[in-house]
Amino acid sequence: MKHRLCGGRQRARSDAEKFAREQHILDAAAELFVTKRFHELTLADVASASGLTKAALYRYFRSKELLFIAVYKRAFIELTEHARSGAPVRLPEGMTTLLVSHPLFCGLTAILHVALETGLTEQEAREFKLFLLEQSQLLVNLIQETTGKGPQACFHFLMQCQQALIGCWHMTHPPEAARKAMQQDPLTIFQMAFEPTLSAHLNALTQAFRQEGDG
Predict the structure, then answer these.
(1) What is the pTM of this model?
(2) pLDDT at position 1, please?
C-alpha cells in the first residue's frame, strides 16, 4: 500500500497544498491502522506509506499520538455528520448500527485513553477534550430528540455507550497469538464478535436509561 504524492518530497507552499498533504497523511495513517496495531506503527511507516520523508512528516505532526488524534478527530466528525444527516438515531439499534459502521472511530476510541492522549501537553489535552465535548454534544442532542430525556442524563448515557464500546472492542479484537489460540477447543468459548457483543451491551444500557429519571 502506497499513498504517493507528486512532488511529495518537496515542501507544500500554499495553504491548499498544506491541507491536501495533511489529509493525504491522515489517509495513509488510517489505512495503516486497519492492518497494524497502534504500538506496532511508527511515523516512519506513515511517512513511507505517504511517499514523504520522515522530516517532512514531522513538519505536520511532532508525534505519533498527535497524528492519530488528528485521524480520530476526522473519524469522529464523519460519525457525527453521518448521525445528523440520516434518520433519527433510535436506541439501541440505531446507535449500534452507527458505531459499527465506523470501525476506524471504534478502534481509535478503544485506545484513546491509554495511548492517544498519553503524549499530549496540558494545552493540547484541553483543546482535544473541548473537541470531544463539542462532538459528543451533537450526539447528545440527537439522543435527546429521540428519547425526550434531559441533557445530563443523555450525556451520561453516551459516556456509558463509550465505555461499552471500549470494552467490547478489546474483548473482540485480541492480539494475534490469543486469537489463534482461541480457534481450538476448549478456548473457542472465548471467541466473541464485535457487533452482537456491543449490541447486547447497548440493549442493556438503553433499558436502564429508559427506566431511570433525568437526575
Answers:
(1) 0.91
(2) 47
